[in-house]
UniProtKB/TrEMBL annotation, chain A:
Keyword Disulfide bond: no
One GO cellular component, as annotated: membrane
Source organism of this protein record: Thiopseudomonas denitrificans
Keywords: Cell membrane, Membrane, Transmembrane, Transmembrane helix
Lineage top rank: taxon: Bacteria
Transmembrane intervals: 21-43, 63-86, 106-124
InterPro entries per the UniProt record, alphabetical: Fumarate_red_C, SQR/QFR_C/D
Name listed for the protein in its UniProt record: Fumarate reductase subunit C
UniProtKB/TrEMBL annotation, chain B:
Major place of residence: membrane
Single GO molecular function: 4 iron, 4 sulfur cluster binding
Pfam family of the protein (one): Fer4_10
Protein's membrane topology: Peripheral membrane protein
PANTHER family assigned to the protein according to its UniProt record, in alphabetical order: FUMARATE REDUCTASE IRON-SULFUR SUBUNIT
Textual note on the cofactor: Binds 1 [4Fe-4S] cluster. Binds 1 [2Fe-2S] cluster.
Organism, scientific name: Thiopseudomonas denitrificans
Keyword annotations: 2Fe-2S, 3Fe-4S, 4Fe-4S, Cell inner membrane, Cell membrane, Electron transport, Iron, Iron-sulfur, Membrane, Metal-binding, Oxidoreductase, Transport, Tricarboxylic acid cycle
GO annotation, cellular component aspect: plasma membrane
Matches recorded under NCBIfam families: dhsB, PRK05950.1, PRK12385.1
Enzyme's top EC category: oxidoreductase
GO BP terms, alphabetized: anaerobic respiration; tricarboxylic acid cycle
Protein's name in the database: Succinate dehydrogenase iron-sulfur subunit
Length: 127, 246
């Protein structure tokens, strides 16, 4: 007779590695909110100026701003975890030599910085 | 000599309907490993205690336990590391059925290992009669070597919640070994292995929790292997789509 314990719903609370994993997966929740906001914005754009203006007003609501700020932080956290995993899943070889992991991680962050600069240029016209 | 409380999850099927935790006082110094502690308990205090071990040097892979909730090799961790925590709880490897005390039934793991055909497959057997060596350059070897260091200890399975939820999942260790052979320039068996690797019970069951790679005593990085296998499997799927279109 062997004895087998089944995993309960709270299995992930037993270990800090599992908690970090669940936190990574949970970053999708504020992102869903952000995407819904975006979709609502596009929809309101098709419905004319009054509708667009009220969407802009809703986006200025402190609670909405806070949730979207959370979405930004969550997506940066998810990116940080993903960037570290990337060179392990897609090891890049140049001239038979493996490109060091830190270099690939740094490259990805440089890409993020690039996107931020581009967004700042488009939306605020700085630079 | 200092002593420390060591608690062990016991399960004697003829006595217990479910596991119980028993406590022992164990003398230790800086060189006492958890395996040494188990040996001392068995010799000095309770000869009925059962556990697996062999090499005492982290190479045979038989002494895997949950130590304070983390999968570890008993011979590779020392009581001194837990002196600060003040207590040590030793349980059998998680996610496997317990046969007796710290001994788990590894049958599922063995079946998964067997299923991925962990050996070099040649379309045509050659070189045996003529004794032709299968040559390989250091660069070719470098591609798979990391994944060939596995000692089949099963720690990664005890670390994998997906295996805990579904024991049919081939799991980190076996998938890493499959990937090791798929990357070997001498092997021609990739097409034979891919259907299983690309199946639902294969690499795609993995959600990259990543804890398997943290606990691996050999730095095999099974999570990387599993996710590289996902890339291979996705490539195969796309190629098949194109082939069908032609
Ligand atoms: S991959 Fe690492 S943790 Fe898993 S069985 Fe092999 S040596 Fe053990
Ligand atoms: S006894 Fe061999 S790995 Fe620990």
């Amino acid at each position: 007779m062997t004895y087998k314990t089944e995993l309960g719903r709270t299995w992930w609370l037993k270990n800090s590695a599992f908690k970090a994993y669940m936190l990574r997966e949970a970053t999708v929740l504020p992102l869903v909110f952000f995407i819904l906001c975006m979709l609502a914005g596009i929809y309101s754009l098709t419905r004319g100026e009054a509708s667009w203006n009220s969407w802009v007003a809703v986006m200025g609501n402190p609670l909405v701003l806070a949730l979207n700020a959370l979405a930004l932080v969550a997506s940066l956290y998810h990116a940080a975890t993903f960037f570290v995993l990337f060179p392990r899943v897609m090891p890049i070889r140049l001239g038979g030599k493996k490109v060091p992991d830190n270099l690939i991680v740094a490259g990805q962050w440089a890409g993020v910085a690039g996107v931020f600069v581009l967004a700042a240029w488009i939306f605020w016209g700085v630079l | 000599m200092k002593t420390m409380e060591v608690r062990i999850q016991r399960y004697l099927p003829e006595q217990h309907s479910e596991p119980v935790v028993e406590s022992y006082q164990v003398p230790f110094d800086d060189s006492t490993s958890v395996l040494d502690a188990l040996n001392s308990i068995k010799e000095e205090q309770d000869s009925s205690l059962s556990y697996r071990w062999s090499c005492r040097m982290a190479i045979c892979g038989s002494c895997g336990f949950m130590i304070n909730g983390e999968p570890k090799l008993g011979c590779k961790v020392f009581l001194r590391d837990y002196a600060a925590a003040g207590t040590l709880l030793i349980e059998p490897l998680a996610h496997f059925p317990v046969e007796r005390d710290l001994i788990v039934d590894l049958e599922q793991f063995m079946q998964h290992l067997d299923a991925i055909q962990p050996y070099i497959i040649k379309e045509q057997a050659n070189g045996v009669s003529e004794m032709t060596p299968h040559k390989q350059t250091p660069a070719q070897m470098d591609k798979y070597q990391q994944f060939s260091d596995c000692i089949n200890c099963g720690l990664c399975y005890a670390a994998c919640p997906q295996f805990g939820l579904n024991p049919e999942f081939i799991g980190p260790g076996a998938l890493a070994l499959a990937h090791r052979y798929n990357l070997d320039s001498r092997d021609e068996g990739r097409a034979e292995r891919m259907p299983l690797i690309g199946s639902e019970e294969g690499a795609w069951s993995c959600t990259f929790v990543g804890y398997c790679s943290e606990v691996c005593p050999q730095s095999v990085d099974p999570a990387a292997a599993v996710n590289q296998a996902k890339v291979l499997s996705a490539q195969d799927m796309v190629l098949q789509l194109f082939r069908r279109k032609k």
